[in-house]
Structures are given as C-alpha cells and as structure tokens.
Design a protein that fits this description.
Chain lengths: 507, 474
C-alpha cells in the first residue's frame, strides 16, 4: 500500500478497533495506540521527506499516487505531499495525539466520543494529502460534520446553539467552495484537454481572468470562513468555548488551518491574477480580524472565550501574511499556522485540565493557582509567552517573519495595514499577562482550591509533547522554514510578476 | 409480430402475472393459509427483480407505441429495487390485525401502479404515456385511503384523486394542443414537427404543469404534505420515492427526446421552478414537527435539486439525475423505514418522541442519521456524490448562480435534518421510546438501504454504468 494512504487507513482501523471495545478504558487505549502509530508515521514522513529533498529530488510533490475513481468525470484519487503539507500533517498528528490524552477521562458515551474525534482527524489527514479537488472537498466536509455531534453531545454551555451555528456556517462556506471548485473544473480544459480536478494540472492551465474574478471570491471566502475571516468568524468563539477540550484543541489547532491552507493552495495558487487584484479587500478584512480578535480577547472573562478570540486574531494573521504574497511573509504564515496550532491546542488542553479541577472558567473566581498546581501553571505561562511572541518560542519566529515580510512592500497601503496589524502584539501581551496575573499569581481566592491535585501522567504527556513542539520550532526554526521555502517557490512563482498591483485608489 | 417480440415487454408481463397470481392466491387460500400470501408474494417479487437484470432485447412494439432500450430497462430495474424495499418495509404493518382482510390488496394495488410506471417509461407516444400515467396514479388514491377507519387517511385519498384528476386534465389539454398543432402523438413525429409556435409553447407549458403536479414541484406542490401525512407510512414512502422517481424518469426522457427544439424554453422554466421548489420546500420543512410532514417537504426540496440535472440537457445531466434518484431511493426509504418501524411499534411519529432515541435504539438512530446525512449530501455517504454530480451537471451548462442557490439550500436543509439528529442524540428524555427489535423483513429492508447508502458512492461502477447508458439532447 502507498505510504500516504496509511494516514487515512490508520484512523479508519482505529475506529474499527474502538468498535470492538466495551468501555472507556478500551476505547481510550485503542485511540492512544492508533494515534501513537499515526505520530510515528508523521515523524517518518518528515524524515523521508527531508532525506528525499537532501538527495536532490526536485519534484513539486513527493510520494504521489494517482488512481481513477469516476473516469467519466475524470475524478481521481490523487495524493502527494510537499513541504507545507508534510508540516501540516505533522502538526495534526501531534495535536490529535495530545487530544486523545487530554480526553482520558471522557466518561459519557466514551466510545462514540473517540470514534467521532478520530473520524474528524481522518478527514483532516485526508485533506492534507489530497491533490484532487474533489477528494479534498470530500475530506473537508468529512472533517466538519462530526463537529456537530462532538459539540452537541459532549460540549458545555449553550452547546446546541453553538454546534448548530458552527456547522451551518462552515457548511455555508462549503457551499461557496462547491461553486469555486466547479468553476475551476470547467475552466481547467483551456488547452483543449479533458476537464480535471487535479490541482497541479489546473495550475498548468491559464484560467481566463474573467473566470478568475468570478470564482476567486467564492473559493477564498469559502475557505476563509474556516480560517475565521472577519466578519464570518462568529462561529469560532461560540464553537470553541462550547466544545469539549480535545475538540477545541483539534478545531482551533488544526481545523482552522484547513482554511488557511485551502486559501493559498486552491484559491491563490490556481487563480493568481484574481488573487492579486482582490488581495487588498481581504487584507483589510484580515487586518480587522487581527486587531479585533485581540481586542475581543481583552474584554472576556471566560478562559475559553479569551483563547477563542485570540485564535481569531492569530488565524487572521495567517491569512494576512498569505495575502502579502512574498516569500518571507508566506513562510511566516505557514510557521504561524504550525505555531498557533500547537500553542492554541496547549491552551485549550490546559483550560480543560484547570476546569476539571476548579469547575469554573471565569478568571475572576480563581487566583493563585501557581501555588497549588505548579506544573499546569508553569505550562500555562509557557503557552502564554509563546502566544505573545517571546523569542525562543515558536510565536516569535512566526510573527517576526510575517511582519518583516509584510514590511517589504514599500507602498503606503501595505505599510499602513502592517503597522495596524503589528499593534496586535501589544494587545496580545495585555490579555495574556492579565490572565496570568489574575489566574496564576496572587492569593488563592477560594479555599476549595487549596487541595487541588496537579497534573496526572496522561495530562503531562498531552502537554509536554505540545511544549516540545513549541520550543523546538522556537529554538531551531530553520529546518522547518527550509522545508516550507522549497515548496513555496512554485506558488510564489505563479503569484510573482503580478505583485504590487495595488489599485490606484489606495495608493 | 410474434410471441418472442412480445417478450421485450418482459418487465410489464411479469408484473401483471405477479399481480394476478397474488389475487388468485388470496382467493384460493383458506383462512388458515392466508398469512402465507404475503411472504410468497415477496419471494415472487424478488425473483422478478432478479430476472429484470437478465439481458433483454431492445426494440419497439405496436407500431412504435411501446419501445425499450438499455436505459429504459435500467430505469425499470431501479424502480424495482425501490419497490422491493417498500414491500419489505410495509410487511410488518400489513400483518396487523386491522389489515387482515385486505392485506393482499395492498400489494396488488401497489403492483398495478408499478406496471403503469413501467408502461409510462417505455412509452413511444403520448397515448401510451397517458395510459401508463393514469394506471400509476389512480390505484395510489385507493392506497392513500387504505386505513379507511381514519379520517386523515380518507382525506389523503380524496385529495390525491382530486389533484390527480386536475393535473391529468391539464396534462391532457396540453397534449391535445400538441396533437392539434403537430398532427401526431408519436414522440418522433412530434419532435420533428415542433417549433416555438405560440400554441405549441402553450401546449408544452400545460404538459410541464401536469408533470409538475406529479413530481410535486412548486407551485404545484400543495397537495403533497397533507397526502403524505395522512397516508400510511408505506404509501407515503412509495409516493415520495418511486412515484416521484418514475415521473422524473419519463419527464427527462420526454424533454431530452421530444421537446429538443424548444430547449431554451424549458431550461428557463426549469431554472425558475428549481429555485422556487428548493427554497419553498426547505422553508416549509424548517418548521415541521411531524416527521412524515418533514420528510414530505424535504422531498419537495429534493425534487428541486433533481431539476438541476435536467437543466443541463446533456448526457452528464441525465446520468446524474438517474444516479441521484437511485441514491435517493436508498436514503429516503432508509429514513422512512425507521419512521415506519417506530410507528409500527409505538404509533409515534413526532420529532419530540424521538428525543433520546440513541440511548434506547442505537442502530435505528444511526441508520436514521446516515439516511438524513445522505439526503443532506454529507460525505462519505452516497448522497454527497449524488448531489455533487447534480451540481456538476448544472455547472457544465454554466448555471453557476443556480448551483450556488442550490448549495445554500442544501445548507438550509441540513438545519432541519440536524434537528432530527439532535433529537435522537443530544436531547434528554425521561420517557424515551422503549428498546424494541423489529421483524426480519423490516431489518432486511433497512439493511439494503444501509448498504446502498454506504456503498453506492465509493463503488464507482454503478455511476459509470448509468453514465454509459444515458443520453443527452440529440
């Protein structure tokens, strides 16, 4: 069997294994084993990828396989990875691994929970290995729909409302996507060949600019909804705060990255002219996301809402950097995806663990946790510092690269939006330090909290692997950015030569 | 013409034979053995279903009134499959005490409508078409009024017969105009003589309206909800799937082979009606609490989606319509099968009764969820492929805005399908429906639906076969 197929087959087999278990104990061990295998596979994939590149393989996509599915429509099951998708797969494997350990005590309908969770992650893996728009879209929807049950059944707070809102908004996004994908398909035969869904083949044809103008907004906004593009981000705070811990981790950590990944792999890569023409609209929207999300986080009192708004801000930054369309900024965008994925997963894991001890998420009701649960508190501080961009952790690498890249544009429009977006760093520092101050330091406000137990072994596994990832990227970012840079080249190649066409109105 | 020529009517002949033999069995069997009639007719129909797949000669009969081809045989076989599932699902209900005296009539009447549909699909002129249509409709009214001691059921029967009479009248009026202007009722002669003369256009619009009643397109849909709610569950599922499917089959055949010269006209009409049907069907479904009514309105919306395939006017369009109907048979019968099973055991059919169903009847809930997801077009179940191909065919004609409206409607429909899922999986209930186990026939019916829903998408051969047999305009 082809190596990449394993990334879909292993979750599928894990689901089958869970079906044969009887209770929580069996289900969680089955998932843990399955996802450990997945993690090892992801490590092997990174290794194989790097050694292939070092050996001088210069193909755009590696490990490709291609088999026909519906011949009459030329729908194929085509898979392959480049540096960017390898990085995303590694991220997903780490987050789902941590997520399984973070839901170790999921008592209620535990088998169903793990099955839905792993179904969700198999959709994500499938999405990242796909090269065919049809299968990509199939996996995309497969990743979205289990969210409804995961939030609706195991969530907290106004879970039914949040679950419905999230599902319908994301499905609305895929409504836009359908049109975009079909538009690409029917314009892919410009050279007189057969219509195709294959991304690399579409990239070779020049799609007429008029068609691009029509379909680019559909595709970009369709993926952008999942990437929390302002003003269509509203599903994100509600969804994340109602979801159970592992689902918030996976959703904010990985699923939102599907949006960013799709935006550049499909929308921008395949429709470069339109991307250049319309970038300014979306740059303004994402700048609003970045600043607004950060401000939103300041007002919140609920830990999950704080982190959800911070995700809106950070994911906004991803789209912002992508739209800058130069090597440095796009590189920063990918690193930001990885960094934010690890960081936000860590945050949500910690919030879940703290909540399971204190039974509250309102920061004013807690205080002095550093004294009673030092391990969790220390990790919280690390996550916080990564989030506000302290050098040595992943957040710094990402944000520094993004802003350097964005500032390379010399015109007024880009300069202004970059400066506006940079303010988010300060605002982020405000809300992170405020939470740390109130939550972890100071006196213990509630006497019941004096006897809380610190992290269990499974919670330590879950957090340590995420911290390792954050510190690893922060201390040795070059291998990651090299891997990304190589694969960004063809995308930049399509976009460049067109850059800097900022409409005259704005200059 | 000799006897072997007659054999190309194999589907119709076998069904007639079956209907007559069930009647005779019912007469001949004593009171002790009457319970055997149902299982025997099930088995006989299954044999007929298998024989249907054996190769058969193509050809025409009666001077072109009747014709058959690989495509038509395929359509008949699809209807046969759906019919078999309906037979299985109504089995438990027919065995009840209240139906004891008339249980075999149910199958006979149902078979009569199927024979009508087969003739309708095979028709080569408007006379045969009309005869088939009437044969497919009139017994339906008797079936809808089958539970004669219930006012709702009687009301459904009356409504159905009145609406059918009205729509047949309109249709017939249109046909008479077509005959008047072209001088023929044969499809190929009508095709040759057709242009966009005003009277011909009017005749066509009347024909379209008549078919609109049968497929329950907006604005001709008003009868649907009441009839679906009042009729027994088995009849409702039959009406919403098989009747609708057969009407769509002949509709697309006639549009693609007869009215080709005015395709611009019917494409515009279809565009408007598709938007109306999807939107209004969905908006009404949003507020329904009774599951039969909910599925009724959702089936109106689904008919709107089907029009997206018709509008393409191409081979791809016809293939996606036939494939979608095949998928729709499994999905909708899966949903109705669960409703029927629960109705048989508890008599409940409101959404609130389904609260907490997963905790007591997990398998039924899972199947219901799969069917609803398939209806909504969620991967990896077959409905996703069906819908995507419909959208693809509409996009191939350049109707991107129509596709967009349709996908938005699919999202709206997801809302009410999710409400049912929410009731079963999320809502709490102090008195959920007790756990029960169904009969072997019901289970078999549900099992076939599940297999269809899960496998049809991934198993590409089915779609490719349909695509090979399909035809476009010209």
């Amino acid at each position: 069997m082809h190596f990449l197929n394993l990334f879909v087959v292993v979750p599928a087999l894990t689901i089958v294994a869970i079906l044969f278990t009887r209770d929580l104990k069996g289900a969680r061990w089955a998932s843990a084993v399955g996802m450990s295998i997945q993690l090892v596979l992801a490590g092997a994939l990174v290794f194989m990828y790097l050694s292939a590149r070092n050996a001088g393989v210069a193909d755009e996509m590696l490990f490709t396989a291609d088999s026909t599915w519906f011949p009459s429509l030329n729908i194929r099951y085509a898979i392959g990875v480049d540096g960017i998708s390898v990085a995303m797969i590694a991220l997903t494997a780490v987050v789902i691994f941590a997520g399984v350990f973070a839901s170790w005590e999921m008592e209620f309908l535990s088998r169903e929970f793990f099955i839905s969770l792993i179904l969700l992650c198999s959709g994500v893996f499938g999405f990242f290995i796909s090269l065919d728009l049809f299968t990509m879209f199939l996996f995309y929807e497969l990743a979205v729909i289990p969210m409804y049950l995961l939030i609706g059944i195991w969530g907290s707070g106004p879970k039914e409302y949040s679950a419905m809102k999230l599902t319908l908004m994301l499905m609305g996004g895929s409504a836009l996507l359908t049109v975009g994908i079909l538009g690409l398909y029917f314009h892919s035969a410009a050279a007189g060949g057969q219509h195709t869904f294959h991304i690399l083949e579409i990239a070779k044809t020049d799609i007429p600019v008029t068609a691009q103008r029509f379909f680019f907004p559909f595709t970009f906004i369709g993926f952008g909804i999942l990437g929390a593009l302002f003003p269509l981000h509203t599903w994100s705070p509600d969804g994340h705060s109602s979801a159970p811990t592992a689902v918030s981790m996976l959703h904010a950590g990985v699923l939102m990255k599907l949006g960013g990944y799709g935006c550049f792999r499909v929308a921008m890569f395949l429709m470069p002219e339109a991307a250049n023409e319309m970038a300014w609209i979306f740059i303004i929207l994402t700048t609003i996301s970045v600043v607004y999300g950060a401000f939103g986080a300041i007002w919140q009192k609920d830990l999950k809402y704080i982190n959800a708004y911070s995700s809106v801000s950070h994911c906004g930054l991803v789209l912002f950097a992508l739209l800058m369309m130069n090597q440095t900024a796009m590189n920063g965008a990918i690193i930001q995806m990885i960094s934010h994925g690890l960081m936000t997963a860590l945050f949500f894991a910690l919030i879940g663990m703290i909540y399971s001890r204190t039974h509250t998420r309102i920061i004013d009701q807690m205080g002095g946790l550093m004294k009673v649960i030092p391990f969790l508190s220390a990790v919280y501080v690390i996550a916080g510092l990564a989030s506000l961009g302290l050098p040595g952790l992943s957040g710094f690498v990402a944000e520094a690269t993004i802003f350097v890249g964005a500032f390379q544009h010399a015109d007024t429009f880009h300069r202004v939006v970059t400066i506006v977006a940079t303010t988010s760093i300060v605002i982020t520092a405000v809300y992170i330090l405020r939470v740390i101050g109130i939550l972890l330091l100071g006196p213990i406000k509630n006497e019941h909290f004096e006897h809380l137990g610190d992290a269990h072994w499974y919670e330590r596994i879950s957090t340590i692997i995420l911290v390792l990832g954050i510190a690893g990227i922060g201390l040795a970012p070059l291998w990651l950015s090299d891997m990304i840079n190589f694969s960004l080249a063809p995308i930049i190649g399509k976009l460049s030569g067109l850059v800097n066409d900022v409409p005259l109105v704005l200059n | 013409m000799n006897l072997s020529d007659l054999m190309i009517m194999r589907h119709e002949l076998l069904l007639t034979l079956l209907a007559v033999s069930i009647l005779i069995m019912d007469l001949g069997a004593g009171p002790k053995h009457r319970y055997l009639v149902l299982p025997v007719s099930l088995i006989l129909f299954f044999v007929n279903l298998i024989i249907g797949f054996l190769p058969v000669r193509e050809g025409t009969l009666f001077g072109g009134m009747y014709h058959t081809s690989g495509l038509i045989i395929l359509m008949k076989n699809i209807l046969n499959i759906g019919f078999f599932i309906v037979m299985l699902q109504s089995f438990t209900w027919l065995k009840k005490e209240e139906n004891k005296l008339k249980m075999s009539e149910f199958y006979v009447l149902l078979l009569a409508t199927l024979i009508g549909m087969n003739f309708m699909i095979s028709s080569g002129d408007f006379l045969m078409f009309y005869l088939g249509l009437e044969l497919a409709t009139i017994p339906m009214a008797a079936l809808a009024a089958y539970v004669h001691h219930q006012t709702r059921s009687a009301e459904a029967g009356i409504k159905l017969i009145l609406i059918s009479a009205l729509s047949s009248g309109i249709l017939l009026f249109g046909l008479s105009m077509i005959y008047g202007t072209t001088g023929s009722i044969f499809f190929n002669e009508v095709k040759a003589a057709y242009s966009s003369e005003p009277l011909q256009v009017l005749g066509f619009i009347f024909f379209f309206a008549g078919m609109g009643f049968k497929i329950s397109l907006v604005p001709f849909h008003l009868w649907t909800a009441d009839v679906y709610e009042g009729a027994p569950v088995g009849v409702t599922s039959y009406l919403s799937v098989i009747s609708k499917g057969a009407a769509v089959f002949i509709f697309i055949l006639v549009l693609y082979t007869v009215f080709t010269s005015i395709d611009f006209l019917w494409k515009d009409l279809t565009y408007i009606i598709a938007v109306l049907t999807m939107t209004i069907g969905n908006l009404f479904a949003l507020r329904q609490k009774n599951l039969k009514r909910l599925l009724a309105f959702s089936s109106i919306a689904q008919a709107g989606f089907i029009l997206l395939g018709i509008i393409a006017g191409s081979k791809l369009g016809m293939a996606s319509v036939i494939y979608f109907i095949l998928v729709y048979i499994f999905s909708n019968l899966g949903a109705f099968g669960v409703v029927a099973a629960i109705h048989d055991h508890t008599g409940k059919e409101s959404m609130d009764d389904y609260n907490g169903l997963y905790h007591t009847n997990p398998r039924l809930s899972l199947l219901m969820m799969l069917s609803l997801f398939s209806l909504a077009g969620i991967p990896p179940v077959a409905g996703f492929f069906g819908k995507f191909f419909l959208f693809t065919s509409a996009a191939s004609g350049g109707y991107y805005w129509l596709v967009f409206i349709a996908v938005l409607n699919a999202t709206i429909s997801l809302y009410y399908y999710l409400l049912v899922v929410k009731a079963m999986f999320i809502n709490k209930n102090d008195h959920p429906i007790e756990p029960f186990s169904s009969d072997i026939t019901t289970r078999l019916g549900l099992l076939i639906c599940t297999a269809g829903i899960v496998a049809l998408g991934f198993y590409n051969t089915v779609y490719e076969l349909i695509n090979k047999l399909s035809i476009g305009i010209n």
